[in-house]
């Protein structure tokens, strides 16, 4: 069995996808199906694959571009690489789907092709936030701008299963993103969600501010897609800002450069911890199959990480475990 890699996903497609497929085959013996314009992929092989590593290519003549609207592109481009790749998963010809393409397009095609897990109203993008103690599963990071309280409860259940099975956390602590720690804080959505989580049987920590997240006090962070996306993009911007300031400060003087050389191992640890390419992709939880969505600017290393995450998720039997948990906690009204 193999994992599908959307060869027309990243901003620089198909070069990063081809290089990632080669590395995955050579280093990890991972079989990858590249789905995309076959003539374009084959034209790149003499330069990108001089060793003639055996790569499996499935033709998909249409491309969902980053500027395309999800529903319109699915209708006007029925043979797009996302649709064809996801169909391979549905038909049992592949185990998972990975793309660095249009996230809205990935969401729409995944739900349309694979369907949602019974008991789930909305699929959610689940990312991974580095913390002082490890990583925190974070959903929704942008798939659902408008949410209802029951959606957030479902996100919490799915995030807990993911944190347990994939991140290896026993009894994951769930936090609800709010503007204060007290139970009465937050907008109406947060206030109405709080009692649902309190009575869910999950290990509910309570309302949390960003500082609790990065301190490692929780293992799962739940939010609507609007707040989640703002949180995520703000965090990424602050990380880049700090990195740029450090680079500018280091280059200011010879003494600063000497200091950097002495502290270089520590900076290396920080870079590894904060680098999104180490995780590679967010998983789309709630669809009936493993689907992973990475950044458009993903390079080959990020795509390798994304496929490795997909393999780890498959080994953990996440989807079946999630179905069982949803049946217990949501369908039975717990």
Please tell me about this protein's structure.
The chain has 334 residues and is of the alpha/beta class. It has two domains: 1-120 and 286-325, 3-Layer(aba) Sandwich (Isopropylmalate Dehydrogenase), CATH 3.40.718.10; 127-276, Isopropylmalate Dehydrogenase, CATH 3.40.718. 49% of the residues lie in helices and 16% in strands. The chain is built from twelve helices and eleven strands. The chain has helices at residues 15-28, 38-48, 70-76, 81-90, 103-114, 149-165, 188-198, 210-214, 225-250, 254-274, 300-315, 318-329; strands at residues 3-6, 32-36, 56-59, 96-99, 124-131, 134-139, 173-177, 203-208, 220-222, 282-285, 291-293. The chain has an eleven-stranded mixed β-sheet with strand order 3-2-1-4-11-10-5-6-9-7-8, sandwiched between helices. Strand 1, helix 1 (15-28) and strand 2 form a beta-alpha-beta unit. Helix 1 (15-28) packs across helix 11 and helix 6 packs across helix 7 (188-198). The longest helix is centred in the C-terminal third of the chain and has 26 residues, at 225-250.
Summarize the structure.
By secondary structure, the chain is α/β, with parallel strands linked by helices. Helix content is 49%, strand content 16%. An 11-stranded mixed sheet has the order 3-2-1-4-11-10-5-6-9-7-8, sandwiched between helices.
């Amino acid at each position: 069995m193999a994992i599908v890699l959307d060869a027309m996903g990243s901003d620089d497609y198909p070069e990063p996808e081809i290089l990632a497929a080669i590395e995955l085959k050579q280093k990890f013996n991972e079989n990858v199906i590249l789905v995309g314009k076959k003539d374009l992929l084959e034209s790149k092989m003499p330069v990108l694959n001089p060793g003639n590593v055996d790569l499996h290519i499935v033709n998909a003549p249409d491309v969902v571009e980053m500027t395309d609207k999800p529903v319109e592109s699915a209708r006007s481009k029925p043979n797009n690489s996302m649709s064809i790749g996801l169909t391979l998963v549905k038909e049992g010809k592949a185990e998972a789907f990975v793309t660095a393409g249009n996230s809205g397009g990935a969401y729409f095609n995944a739900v349309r092709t694979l369907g949602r897990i019974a008991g789930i109203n909305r699929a959610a993008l689940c990312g991974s936030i580095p913390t002082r103690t490890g990583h925190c599963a974070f959903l929704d990071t942008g798939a659902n701008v408008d949410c209802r309280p029951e959606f957030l409860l479902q996100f919490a259940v799915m995030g807990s299963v993911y944190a347990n099975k994939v991140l290896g956390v026993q009894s994951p602590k769930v936090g609800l993103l709010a503007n204060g720690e007290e139970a009465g804080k937050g907008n109406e959505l947060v206030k109405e969600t709080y009692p649902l989580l309190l009575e869910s049987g999950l290990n509910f920590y309570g309302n949390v501010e960003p500082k609790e997240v990065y301190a490692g006090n929780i293992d799962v962070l739940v939010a609507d897609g609007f707040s989640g996306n703002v949180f995520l993009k703000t965090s990424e911007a602050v990380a880049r800002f700090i990195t740029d300031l450090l680079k500018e400060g280091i280059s200011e003087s010879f003494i600063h450069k000497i200091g950097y050389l002495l502290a270089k191992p520590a900076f290396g640890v920080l870079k590894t911890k904060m680098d999104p390419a180490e995780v590679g992709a967010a998983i789309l939880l709630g669809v009936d199959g493993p689907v992973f969505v990475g950044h458009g600017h993903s390079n080959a290393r990020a795509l390798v990480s994304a496929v490795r995450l997909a393999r780890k998720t498959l080994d953990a039997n996440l989807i079946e475990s999630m179905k069982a948990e949803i049946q217990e906690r949501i369908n039975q009204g717990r």
